[in-house]
Specification:
The chain is an alpha+beta fold. It has 13 helices and 20 strands. The structure holds zinc ion.
């Protein structure tokens, strides 16, 4: 596996600058293309699965986190509060409290549940500078987050549906998890005290995992402070394991924020909060994708999807026409002309681009392309329209393969 820090810099995806600060990477144009494609995929998948997207601010009053429990259980990982004329605000360590307040801002009938609120939003962690690096240990995190407000009876189905979304995303991204982990509380004061609620949450998650047929390990001391989790673990190039995706059950924050819905009986009932993330933070997801694929991203994620290679200057006009048609079709294409070297040299330069469309004199006249795939496979010259239709369909479907559907 490749080190994403080295490769990310070489490929011009992201970088850091001491003047901006450690753990605060910025995204270069090609990295921003990958991130945008990933965010678009997630947003669409969530919309189809019945999630509603919201936006909420990255700051909140200290009181918000005192209510949620972050202030007492998680303060060491938070940035110090900012004083604003007698009021203290903090950079948020998670999105949950904002979403709980958004839920509470309207009254809800049991008919609206499960209510799934999603946001790809910023959150902050006061990591020490010694442990920071690349996209995996950062101080500013953009999390693919969602909170499902539902009844206890709906929790198992919602957790299962979240696991299904995770499985689909991993397939499209071409990544495989190291293991599924049932993360349980351990000894210590790190966890909120509510033994019967912990028991119930653990039972529910165990039931979901057992029914899913996925192999998993139960590990103590890895739960969130408010509840147990299913964590999907990945391994980086240095062999270190970390959590990418997660599904969590929380009885604590609904209690703290006094959330309720009106039941069929007309009375007030407490919903459960299911916290879930499909791809985790975009930082960690992209770091893993760089390492897993060595920069050769699945076609739908690649910064450049088609490199157009005119054999001589005479084919430059045909190359420009093909580039225009790619852009019209929503494909990211670039022309690398003869001024950039021999055809062989240009093909080597473009070795991470999924599709190389070579245009010689014959192809130019017949409106064809001679296609080479990134894996070295060469295809017979074919009509440019057929080529664009085929790869367009694979990319639209977020297919992990290059040619066969
Ligand atoms: Zn949450």
């Amino acid at each position: 596996m490749h080190d994403h820090r080295k490769l990310g810099r070489e490929l011009g995806l992201f970088d850091t600058d001491p003047l901006i600060g450690a753990g605060l990477p910025y995204w270069l144009p090609d990295g921003a293309v990958v991130r945008h494609a990933l965010e678009e995929y997630i947003r669409t998948a969530e919309q189809r699965a019945g999630y509603r997207h919201v936006y909420s601010p990255v700051l909140g009053k200290r009181e918000l986190y005192e209510i949620s429990g972050h202030w007492s259980h998680y303060r060491d990982d938070m940035f110090p509060p900012l004083d604003l004329g007698g009021e203290q605000v903090v950079l948020r360590p998670s999105l949950c409290p904002h979403h709980a307040v958004i839920y509470r801002s309207r009254s809800h009938s049991y008919r609206e549940l499960p209510l799934r609120l999603a946001e790809l939003g910023g959150m902050y962690r006061a990591e020490l500078s010694g442990v920071l690096g690349g996209l995996t240990r950062v101080r500013a995190i953009h999390l693919n987050d969602a909170h499902i407000f539902c009844t206890v009876d709906q929790v198992a189905a919602e957790a299962q549906a979240a696991l299904d979304l995770i499985g689909q995303a991993y397939q499209a991204l071409g990544i495989s998890p190291t293991r599924y982990r049932l993360s349980l509380p351990g000894p210590g004061a790190k966890y909120v005290a509510a033994p019967q609620l912990w028991r119930r949450s653990i039972e529910l998650l165990t039931e979901v995992l057992d029914r899913s047929g996925l192999p998993y390990q139960a590990v103590e001391g890895e739960a969130a402070f408010y509840g147990p989790k299913i964590d999907v673990q990945i391994t980086d190039s240095a062999g270190r394991e970390s959590t990418l995706s997660t599904v969590q059950i929380d009885f604590h924050q609904p209690e703290q924020f006094d959330l309720h819905y009106i039941g069929a009986d007309g009375g007030k009932h407490r919903p459960v909060m299911v916290h879930r993330s499909i791809i985790g933070s975009v930082e960690r997801a992209v770091a893993h994708l760089i390492e897993q694929h060595g920069g050769a991203f699945p076609g739908w994620l690649a910064p450049v999807q088609v490199v157009i290679l005119p054999i001589s200057d005479a084919e430059l006009p045909s190359a420009a026409v093909l580039a225009r048609r790619c852009a019209d079709r929503g494909l990211r294409a670039e022309i690398t002309g003869p001024d950039r070297g021999t055809l062989g040299a240009r093909i080597r330069q473009a070795r991470l681009v999924p599709y190389q469309a070579v245009i010689g004199a014959k192809e130019a006249v017949q409106d064809q392309v001679a296609v080479r795939l990134r894996n070295g496979r060469r295809l017979d010259p074919q009509p440019a329209d057929d080529f664009l239709a085929r790869i367009g369909a694979l990319i639209d479907a977020h297919h992990p393969g290059l040619w066969e559907s």
